Amino acid sequence: MFTEPVKLSPQEVFSSAKLQHVACQVYLDTICKLPALVRAWWNSQNKRVMDHVEKFTSNHVTSVISSREIQAVQNADVSLENMTVKGRPTAREVVATYTIEEVAIELVVKLPANHPLGVVTIDGGRRVGVSQSQWRHWLLQLTTFLTHQNGSILDGLALWKRNVDKRFEGVEECMICFYVLHGATCQLPKLSCRTCKKRFHS
User: Fold this and answer.
1) How confident is the model at residue 57 (pLDDT cuts 50, 70, 90)?
2) Coil, strand or helix: which one is 98?
3) More confidently predicted of 65 and 81
4) Cα–Cα dist 141/190, whole Å
5) Where does the E3 ubiquitin-protein ligase listerin ubiquitin conjugating domain lie (predicted)?
6) Contact indicator for 150, 36 with CB cutoff of 8 Å
7) 119, 112 Cβ separation under 8 angstroms
8) Single pTM value for the model
9) Domains of the chain: which residue ranges?
10) What is the dihedral of CA 144, 116, 91, 124, to 10 degrees?
């Protein structure tokens, strides 16, 4: 009922099965287009209703929506400079890799078993050239976007990429090794030359 679109005609008499099919399609369309609203509604229900909706969604809807989201990421024609995005449908994961020079920053977005009712988990992986608090702020911002907005995973990753781009934008390369990030410590140039005021790695 969720994979086949419903066909309606004005002359048709509605049967119980047809009504169920229409209801399933309405629920699927609503949860696809307004996941934050459905999630907020679900969280406001009593335990019994929450359990029924979660069970129904997990059994019938999550696989359809997860595969659509991951397929949309894989088929996206969006040019994300310095970043590659890959989907892992069987694991319900999307992996974004941001590359600066020879260093890669990886971010994994994991969809829950009751997606989109549950909250996505984001594994930050290795942070490079960013303080721990800034990194946590970015991950929190991405989690909040994916939880409380009606945007897609690709929209959220584009937001994260903009933050990373802004962080490294305008940072001059080290005048000794000619890299923005240090090869061993992955730090930005911090020390400043007293004569020329150019920054270099410690």
Assistant:
1) very high
2) strand
3) 65
4) 27
5) 83-167
6) yes
7) yes
8) 0.74
9) 16-66
10) 0
